[in-house]
UniProtKB/TrEMBL annotation:
InterPro entries: Band_7, Band_7/SPFH_dom_sf, HflC
Cell compartment(s), UniProt: Membrane
Protein name as annotated: Protein HflC
Domain Band: 20-184
Job of this protein: HflC and HflK could regulate a protease.
Membrane topology, record value: Single-pass membrane protein
Amino acid sequence: MRKSTFLLPVLVIAVVVALSSIFIVDEREKALVLQFGRVVSVKEDPGLAFKIPLIQEVVRYDDRILSIDVQPLEVTPLDDRRLVVDAFARYRIANVEQFRQAVGVGGVPVAEDRLDRILRAETREVLGSVSSKDILSSDRAALMLRIRNSAIAEARALGVDVIDVRLKATDLPQANLEATFERMKAEREREATDERARGNEAAQRVRAQADRTVVELVSEARREAEIIRGEADAQRNAIFAEAFGKDPDFFEFYRSLSAYERALTGGNSSLVLSPDSEFFNYLGSSTGRQAR
């Protein structure tokens, strides 16, 4: 009875010690076995691993690709047009032992703080060597690659591999937005004024050409009308001459009637003639013929 009572606590302690000496390494992480703060073992393969209870401890680090948002920074390109750049990076802990030695107990927050300073410095250096047009154009992909390649060497001292760097936004500082907007507005107004001036010039050319065409058409029409009128007058005179030659008395009679029609119209005008005037020869003739 006493023996079983003694063995039970020993068995429990042994089980606890055995369980505390076993730990599981997940496939998404890497582990370090520390003994009094010194790295004694690195566990990178997933599965069961062992450590000395109470003496050794296990520190785990994420083995997946991690993301860090770089604090916005202001850069000055070659054309002195300041820009506020917002970027992010993706990295991975490549060497956990070196990572531990570099950041100590601070872990990932300390590493990301140092990595942020590295990325900010490289971003400012790379973007400061080009113009703002290059930053805002399709060439920015090459610039992001340059930033990444420049940051890789310094990040390796932390045991970290920089996988990618991306620029999320490149904006003007708030103080420059209004001035830039006014400059863009003035440029657009100038372009609009130039377009209106060119439009008015083109309209004047079209209008002048149309006026010239109208004058030419009217002149040509008048010339043709005068020619037709002259030909008609000549034809009419020829008909009158032929008619006069055929019957001079009828022609004289017709001319007298036309003269009566034009002279004896109603109105306020007065015509004073002698009764035996030649104007009334046909009116004074009983036969309708000119009095001889």
